[in-house]
Amino acid sequence: MKTVKIFITLKHGVLDPQGKAVQESLNKLGFPEVKGARVGKYMELQLDDHADIDQQIKEMCAKLLANPVIEDYQYTIEEGAVQ
Amino acid sequence: MKFAVIVFPGSNCDRDMYHAVQDSLGEEAKLVWYEDADLVEFDAILLPGGFSYGDYLRSGAIAATSNIVNQIKQKASEGMPILGVCNGFQVLLESGLLPGAMLRNKKLKFMCHQEELVVENNQTQFTSSYEEKETISLPIAHGEGNYYCDEKVLAELEANGQIVFRYADNPNGSVGDIAGIINEQGNVLGMMPHPERATEAVLGSDDGLKLFKSVVNHWREAYVAGV
After folding, report:
1. Which residues form a coiled coil (chain B) (predicted)?
2. Which end of chain B is flanked by fewer CB atoms within 10 Å, N or C?
3. Residue A23 distance to chain B (closest CA, Å)
4. Would you say residue A83 has pLDDT above 90?
């Protein structure tokens, strides 16, 4: 069993209104040093061991998990299942 | 002419669409549950607004993986007219039938009000009853209607006349003030504003009715010429 942790973020250059609102709120809360914020998604998948796990994950991201028009993704693979 | 209105779990403008076709337009409409759908008997496909699958992951993303979308892709390649409104537009984008993607509205608010649109291309089977550059009034109701595509795609849309509707006063941050686009073949239209909610004067506007009338006129000319 493997645990795959996937981070999906808006591509740089794509305006992130949510990130901008987060940045402005942090500035108002007394954190003027925050000059930028981008909000993304985090997913954990539990997968059976598979010979071509990288290929499988890339295909999942391309077909469903990320939208390549606006989003980039990164992932890590860890041994075992998350409890 | 027979219109299929595809109903996904979470669709909520399906009955508006049905009413627009059946009562305002006077043609035949059928509500089709996405799992049962067999599109053989229909002449046009309507993808209604709403929140298919609760907008989980991304608006329209889960609906775009459903089996019916494969049938819709097949019908699209055969030239059948397909209209996606609001969440229906998002499904068309997520399924790759139209280019681009939707982001959250620039001001992060769900917006629900009347908007003025300019008909940029009246040479399509969806807009032939409008004048070129006609200003029309349709309601919008969306939180993720901020259309995005890169500059290359935008230039192609412009060059091919694929931008069908633009906002007169852009409410959501869409690139190029885009409110609706059509595919290169000219038979798949996606738009965020709701023509089906503007088909009778009593609803505040009947500017949407001409869109449905255009589709029927084109179909009559193309398939039942001489009748």
Report:
1. none
2. C
3. 14
4. no
Residues of B with CB under 8 A from a CB of A: 57-58, 61, 65, 93-94, 99-101, 103-108, 146, 148-150, 173
State how many domains chain A has: 1
Q: Which residue of A has its CA nearest to B66?
A: A64
Which of B195, B7, B156 has the alpha carbon at shortest distance from B91?
B7
- Locus of tokens 């909610």: B197
Question: How confident is the model at residue B226, as a pLDDT?
Answer: 54
Report chain A's C-alpha Rg in angstroms.
16
Size of interface A-B (CB pairs under 8 A): 39
Minimal Cβ distance to B65: which of A10, A64, A69 = A64
**Alpha-carbon separation of residue B124 from B88, B185, B198 (angstroms):** 19, 10, 20
Q: Which among B93, B94, B108 is the nearest to A17, CB-wise? A: B108
Q: Give yes or no for a contact between B30 and B2, defined as CB atoms under 8 angstroms apart.
A: yes
* Domain hosting residue B65, numbered range: 2-224
Give contacts of B171 with chain A, Cβ < 8 Å. Answer: none
The confidence score (pLDDT) of residue B225 equals 64
What is the pLDDT, as a whole number, of residue B61? 95
- Give φ, ψ of B63 to 5 degrees: -60, -35
Rounded Cα gap, residues B213 and B144, in angstroms: 28
Residue A36 makes CB contacts below 8 A (sequence gap 6+) with A19, A23
The count of structural domains within chain B is: 1
* Whether complex ipTM tops 0.85: no
Domain that holds residue A46: 2-79
- Judging contacts by C-beta atoms under 8 Å, the chain A residues touching residue B61 are 64, 67
Mean of the pLDDT values across residues B79-102?
A: 97
Order of strands across the sheet that contains B82-85: B28-33, B2-7, B44-47, B82-85, B188-191, B178-182, B163-167, B111-119, B135-142
Predicted local distance difference test score (pLDDT) of residue B27: 97
